[in-house]
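2024-03-11 09:14:02 INFO queue: dequeued item XRE family transcriptional regulator, len=180
2024-03-11 09:14:02 INFO validating residues
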Amino acid sequence: MSPSPAPDGRALAAAVGTRIRTLRTRAGVGLTALATDSGLGKGTLSELENGRRNPTLDTLFAIATALSIPLSDLLFGDDGVAEAHGESVAATLLGRWEDPDGVTEVYRLTIHERVQVSHPHSPGVREVLTVLTGTAEVGPVDAPVTVSAAGTHTFIAETDHVYRGIGGPASAVLTMRYPR
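2024-03-11 09:14:37 INFO prediction written
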């Protein structure tokens, strides 16, 4: 269970919760159905929508995948909120672009030494990670790749995949491409 939002995190939790509820209702999806499709508890979703729980990166990806939307739909709004944190990864949305073929998102990441397993994204989602400083292990759980500074790794994120800093935190840029 995530801790209650800290005073400075309340605005983030409230903004993301409002977006979750708005996107869920716009899609015509009930709370119970979203809980089933995302693998999250109905109580967890209710707490998130009401701003009483800090959203984690894994939770947000589960919701985005269940609603078949890019992660940035949950992160980016009029209030400028554009960040999320997971077990190992802190992500800040730098930009989002749409074209007829899909949506492209670019994130600045800090990848810590703990292992983070990210669950599968929607079919066809491609991730391209370029390490700026440090070294990171990334890619599918069964075939991760070690990437050092100035190195890049591309993979389809349809299966469980890992992120882990090696020998300390790594900074990186992640580009995600969601096909239509």
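2024-03-11 09:14:37 INFO annotate: Residues 1-7 have pLDDT under 50 and may be disordered.
2024-03-11 09:14:38 INFO item closed
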